[in-house]
Every structure is written in C-alpha cells, then in structure tokens.
Amino acid sequence: MRQAGAYSGLLCGGISGRTGPHSLPLARIKKIMKKSGEDVKMISGEAPIVFSKACELFIEELTRRSWIIAIQGKRRTLHKEDVASAVIATDLFDFLITLVSNSGNHGVGATTVMEMETIDDYS
C-alpha cells in the first residue's frame, strides 16, 4: 500500500476540505504548464499543487521586499514602483528585470545602494 509522501499535507485541507490549502487556480497552473512546451503532454495531479505553493511563496517574498521599500518611502500603500525597485534590488529576481524595465516606469531604478543593503539585511 502506498504511504503518504512529504507533500501529502498539501493535498488535503482548506475551507471546504475539497480544494486544499492552495489559493491559486490549479486548472490555470496546469494550462500554463501544458503551454510550456510541446513535449509536455501529461501532468500528474500533484505537480500543479507543488507549483501553486511555489507561486505563493514567490509572491509572498516579492511582496515583503516591496513592502520594505514602501515603508522606507514613508508610505503604507504598495505601488508598482516598489515592486520594480524590489526586483532591481534583489539578485534573486534578476530574471524579472527586463519585465520591470520595459514597463515604462521612469521612477524605476531609483533605489539607492543603502536601500538595497537594507533590503538584503531582511532576507
């Protein structure tokens, strides 16, 4: 008989008990996964759940770093410039730099070296 794996806790729970603890739509994640390449034909039921959790953690980390920048600007509202500054200030998010630099923001990149060091201290 098959035993529960390390990710078995991700498969059950949630408010209704049917949907699980993930808040991102699994059907949409599966559709994106299938569009990733011609070789991708079949996807197991657990794979979108793991991707959903990874996306949630990614969003949480990017939001936290963006929030630090907003607080440094003495604001309590998160703006897209804060997200762009967090991307620019964090080496981990280098793959997003072209996305935020092409968005037409003139204030993007205004993060100072001291702010970048402060942001990295929180990681």
UniProtKB/TrEMBL annotation:
One Gene Ontology cellular component annotation held by this UniProt entry: nucleus
Main location: nucleus
Keywords for the protein's UniProt record, in alphabetical order: Nucleus
Domain Transcription factor CBF/NF-Y/archaeal histone: 23-87
Keyword RNA-binding part of the UniProt annotation: no
UniProt xrefs under InterPro entries: CBFA_NFYB_domain, Histone-fold, Transcr_DNA_Rep_Reg
The keyword Protein transport is assigned to this record: no
GO MF term set: DNA-binding transcription factor activity, RNA polymerase II-specific; protein heterodimerization activity; RNA polymerase II cis-regulatory region sequence-specific DNA binding
Location(s) in or outside the cell: Nucleus
Protein name as it appears in the record: Transcription factor CBF/NF-Y/archaeal histone domain-containing protein
Organism field: Canavalia gladiata
Organism placement in taxonomy: Eukaryota, Viridiplantae, Streptophyta, Embryophyta, Tracheophyta
